[in-house]
């Protein structure tokens, strides 16, 4: 838990969020500024700043983030149509909240290429 981190506060229920899923490793909640009909964030419960600071012991946790994202996509009914998973890393990557998170974005045709 990092005192000033908004996602740590959501994980610990200090700040309210529209939480869809929670287990001992991860929490998933709706983004407050959705960029598509479905926009959900999946975050590790422990504070990890970004992909840059992942440790070898986080390997299974990262895999679990993807499995949970896949399950939520199914529950949201966007699996068949397809969706996008994004992890912005650092300022050039567009990261604004420095607690690792996976964006699950779908419900519409995504624009591509990104950049
Ligand atoms: P990033 O830009 O770091 O990849 O993504 C951060 C995301 O967190 C943004 O899409 C932003 O809308 C979302 N966000 C920021 N603050 C909050 C918050 O307090 N609650 C929720 N649910 N989402 C937030
Ligand atoms: Zn945090």
Describe the structure.
The protein has 115 residues and is an alpha+beta fold. It has helices at 6-11, 59-76; strands spanning 19-22, 26-30, 38-44, 83-86, 102-106. A five-stranded antiparallel beta sheet has the order 1-2-3-5-4, with helices on one face. The model has no long low-confidence stretch (mean pLDDT 97).
Layout of strands and helices, then pairs:
Blueprint: H1 6-11, E1 19-22, E2 26-30, E3 38-44, H2 59-76, E4 83-86, E5 102-106
Bound molecules: guanosine-5'-monophosphate and zinc ion.
Zinc ion (ZN) binds at residues 2, 5, 7-8, 47, 99.
- List the ions, cofactors and other small molecules found in this model: guanosine-5'-monophosphate, zinc ion
Strand order of the largest sheet: 1-2-3-5-4
- In terms of DSSP E residues, the strand content is 15-25%
- Structural class by secondary-structure content: alpha+beta
Low-confidence stretches: none
Helix content: 10-25%
- DSSP summary: helix tally: 2
Using only C-alpha atoms, the radius of gyration works out to 14 Å
Order of helices and strands: HEEEHEE
Principal-axis shape equals globular
What is the averaged pLDDT score? 97
Cα(first) to Cα(last) distance is: 32 Å
Q: How many individual β-strands?
A: 5
Largest sheet: 5 strands, antiparallel
Structure in a nutshell:
The chain is 21% helix and 22% strand. By secondary structure, it is an alpha+beta fold.
Attribute tags:
binds zinc ion; five-stranded antiparallel sheet; binds guanosine-5'-monophosphate; 115 residues; alpha+beta
